[in-house]
Amino acid sequence: MSKKIFVGNLSFQTTENDLNAAFAQHGPVEAVAIITDRETGRSKGFGFVTMTDGADKAIAQLSGSELNGRMLTVNEAKPMVKRDFGGGRGGNGRSRY
User: Fold this and answer.
1) Phi/psi at 20 (nearest 5 deg)?
2) Beta strands 70-71 and 73-76: pairing type?
3) Measured distance CA(23)–CA(56) in Å, rounded
4) Contact criterion met (CB below 8 Å) for 63 and 73
5) What DSSP string runs through the chain?
6) Where are the chain's structural domains?
């Protein structure tokens, strides 16, 4: 079964190929994605790696390790929580009237 891994504190110069190479040492990599800003296309400094096998070993070995001059934060990805900002009017959800 595949496991999705969160990778944080990435250097803005880190590429998906860099991540793939680092994680492939611990098992087969199914997918790699670095999250980018919609407007600028610049990396947001985190990404996700999906592995079919060896994910736990990769997490243990790579968490706190250095990649492109940055100490990585590596852990199992958690499902995204939908945020409700309330009101549907923007701002803090309170009426101005």
Assistant:
1) -60, -45
2) unpaired
3) 11
4) yes
5) --EEEEEES--TT--HHHHHHHHHTSS-EEEEEEEE-TTT--EEEEEEEEESS-HHHHHHHHTT-EETTEE-EEEE--PPPPP---SSSSTTS----
6) 3-76
- CA atoms of 77 and 63, how far apart (whole Å): 13
3-76 under CATH 3.30.470.10, yes or no: no
pLDDT value at residue 83: 78
Q: Which residue has the tokens 């496991």?
A: 3
Question: Which two three-digit tokens encode residue 88?
Answer: 């549907």
Cβ atoms of 34 and 68 closer than 8 Å: no
Name 36's bridge partners: 43
Span 85-97, pLDDT tens digits: 665 555 555 555 5
* Euclidean distance between CA atoms 20 and 24, whole angstroms: 6
